[in-house]
Amino acid sequence: MESSDASEQTIQVPGEESNPTLSEERWTEIHFNWGGKPYKVDVADSDRLFDLKTAIYNLTKVPSERQKILGFVKGKLPPDQTRIQPTKIDCASSELFIVPTKRFTLIGTPEGDEIKDPSQLESLPDVVNDLDVDFSENLVASNRYQHDARNIRKIYEATKNLQVNIIHPLHQGKKLLVLDIDYTILDTKPLTSGSLPPAECARPGLHEFLEAIYPFYDICIWSQTSWIWLETKLVELGMVGSQRSYQISFVLDKTCMFTVFTERDNKPWTHSVKALQIIWNHFPQFNATNTIHVDDLSRNFALNPKEGLKISAFKNAHTPEAAADRELKKLAHYMIHIAGVSDFTTLSHKNWKNTVKLLAGP
């Protein structure tokens, strides 16, 4: 979903002209009034109520939790995952659908531009990992995600909106590591609270790991936080701006992620994803054959389950158990071992630790 007043983008997404899903999307212009002024948004048949609220926020800066939408449907608004069908198409799906009016009224106060303490930022990642799901165990669900018209469009939109800042030039022939930060290579909680120095929040062996794999991989950091906070973390950890024998090639933040909708335990479930296709569209030298994504949350692999490698979450950095953590040392061993494989799609990263045990011998 985009504002109908949005300016034209010039980035050409590879294959967009021949993508039937994108070309078949039907759009309807919907108008609303807010603060005595008219606004308009374009709604696609594959959009959900969540997307409408996001578009409203982009235009008005009224957060979704403050949005009171009057006259959009009869009665109470349905859940955010409900699909909007402005053109009334037949659907055999069991999902909920609504056919809205094409004009409504918005009531809500926009958020201020005040500067917040980093520890209070809403963009900080989840501390709890209780709602994770392994999509390598459910390829049917992942396949449904990948072929969902809305998700395909979200990848297209994210690709066009992304402007990558290359920190260090990419190298011909190297593979790509997409690396998460929070609870993957550092304990976020004491870093945001200031209870521990940054160096003590880092997972043991962080710099040694990056130095070991750097001859074989270009490194992309992708974090579910805002850029201003992400930049602070990288500097404090000494990953950028310091003299190291490795270099970070580029960094992506939460703006490159988008929300997907599915079910978990037969209940509606919403979470964000890191779609590797967005990177591949910008850098065609990378694809499923030479990319590995390391993260502590399997749900981030929803659109690329075979490229994902789950690492155990790193928490409680102040404890002896955390100080004894050797996860990154093992991971370096594994990634160097597979660096010579020409096609990563022939591998299964799920049992990577067993591979490391075999390499270590009896």
From TrEMBL:
Residue ranges constituting the FCP1 homology domain according to the UniProt record: 170-338
Spans traversing the lipid bilayer: none
GO BP annotations, alphabetical order: regulation of proteasome assembly
Keywords attached to this entry: Hydrolase, Nucleus
Residue numbers spanned by region Disordered: 1-24
Domain of life assignment: Eukaryota
InterPro entries attached to this UniProt entry: FCP1_dom, HAD-like_sf, HAD-SF_hydro_IIID, HAD_sf, Ubiquitin-like_domsf, UBLCP1
Gene Ontology terms for molecular function: protein serine/threonine phosphatase activity
Single GO cellular component term: nucleus
Subcellular location: Nucleus
Compositionally biased intervals (Polar residues): 1-22
Name of this protein: HAD-like domain-containing protein
